[in-house]
Amino acid sequence: MDYKEAVNTYKEQLIEDLNGLLSINSVKGEKENGAPVGAGPKEALDYMLKLGERDSFVTKSVEGLAGHIEAGSGETIFGVLGHVDVVPPGDGWDSDPFTPVVRDGEIIARGVQDDKGPTMAAYYAMKILKEQEETFKLRTRLIIGTDEESDWQCTDAYFKHEAMPDLGFAPDADFPLIYGEKGMTTFNIAQRQTVLDEEEPNIELKVLISGERYNMVPGEAVAKLRIIQNMTEVIQSFEGFLREKEVQGSYEIDNGFLKLGITGKSAHGSKPEDGINAGFVILQFLNTLSLDRNATSFVKFADTYIINNFDGTSFDMAHFDEEMGHVSVNTGLINYTEVDGGTFGVNLRYPKGLDFEKGLEAFEEKANRDGFVIEDVHHEAPHYVNKDEPLVKVLTDSYRNHVDDDTEPFTIGGGTYARTMKKGVAFGAMFKDTPDTMHQKNERMKIDELLLATEIYLEALHRICIKDELNEN
Ligand SMILES: [Zn+2]
């Protein structure tokens, strides 16, 4: 089959169908009758299922949250998992986010890159195969979710009712292919034990605030101190500290209180060492002062276990995997008040081979001794498909037949939709040089790249679901 030629024949219709999907505002909304995550996402799901019906596929809706478009029969199920919900458009668009426009060969609309464009590309790959009257040897399902951007209720509901595909891919990330994703955890380390001072301390830490999200390195930190004597000395030492550390900071005196501010450098939580954690910096300064006992216990704990703990060593949870890399630890939230004590909000990502639960338990025992407990643990295990699987080989090969790029399949520290399928990999649809406009204003996708992705998916599905190449291996 000439994949390029085949896709080209469908170009106009593909764009038209995509524009219809992009015109639906499918931001998560209030629960309505039959629409658990709002009317918009449900409308987008129904729109896709209607295309499936129009083109004579078998379709199914599951709880108004997800559905599939199916071709072929047989025991082996091949799943392609896309989503039609989008994040809120935000401000600053040059055109209406839900009225797709074409400029310089690019379609501009919310969701065109994440994930309506790639989902439609995968749909057209199925449609073209069907209309070429090919026989699907695998039961091939385009599974459509409507809650990927929030709580993944869609895949939860879907897999409660429907069989897990034996294998598949999610067109919701990058080419060539992502076969491993680190385990993702968040937890809080909270101070419990209040230690009273025997006499009034000269310096009291009233408040410390740094960070807003687990998965970001805090770029700002502020602390408020009450100082009875020698305020000037503390200020001088703060200024010296800033110079020595070469970081930006500020101070302000307010009614006997000293407010300190640090500006670090924000970064993504999967690469904490790329940033400058403003919370760490302010804690390092506080560690040079003689504070009240409670704050001292908080700051000492930070010094032992938190500050510059980027790879889990201080938790005794460091681990390295050849393919998936190191444990990464981001302390995205650091808070302290004199009433409630301190809390560290941690985002820890880890490669296969680490027993996270056991590691955390052992760390908690140590933390307990210093008056800290571990709370609010969220844990998703690493996702990994063997790189030598025929699935990975055929998909990568399908990509390389259309793109002059030898980049090897890779693993990432984040999570993609693929992890909801037992043997699922992420496969496109962003190319190496595609600007990532997902979740941003003026989200866009080149029409050429939309067509190219469709060609790649067409070859992949042709080889796997029609020619059954994986079975022959
Ligand atoms: Zn997505």
Helix proportion of residues, in percent? Answer: 25-40%
Broad shape: elongated
The major pleated sheet works out as: 8 strands, antiparallel
The number of E-state strands comes to 26
CATH architecture of the largest domain: 3-Layer(aba) Sandwich
Average pLDDT number:
95
Ligand inventory: zinc ion
Count of all domains? 2
Strand order of the largest sheet: 14-15-13-11-19-20-10-21
- How large, in whole angstroms, is the Cα Rg? 26 Å
User: Please, what is the oligomeric state?
Assistant: single chain
- Residue share in β-strands: 25-35%
Unreliably modeled segments: none
Structural account:
- This protein has 473 residues and is of the alpha+beta class.
- It has two domains: 3-181 and 384-472, Zn peptidases (Aminopeptidase, 3-Layer(aba) Sandwich); 184-380, Alpha-Beta Plaits, CATH 3.30.70.
- The chain contains twelve helices and 26 strands.
- The chain has helices at residues 3-9, 11-22, 39-54, 112-131, 153-161, 231-245, 278-286, 293-306, 356-369, 390-400, 447-466, 469-472; strands at 58-62, 66-71, 77-83, 101-103, 106-108, 139-145, 167-170, 173-174, 178-181, 183-191, 203-210, 216-217, 220-227, 248-254, 257-263, 267-268, 320-321, 325-326, 328-337, 341-350, 372-380, 383-384, 410-412, 424-426, 429-430, 444-446.
- The strands form seven sheets. An eight-stranded antiparallel β-sheet has the order 14-15-13-11-19-20-10-21, covered by helices on one side. A six-stranded mixed β-sheet has the order 1-2-6-3-7-24, sandwiched between helices.
- A hairpin with a 3-residue loop joins β19 and β20.
- α1 packs across α11 (447-466) and α7 (278-286) packs across α8 (293-306).
- The protein starts with a helix and ends with a helix.
- Bound molecules: zinc ion.
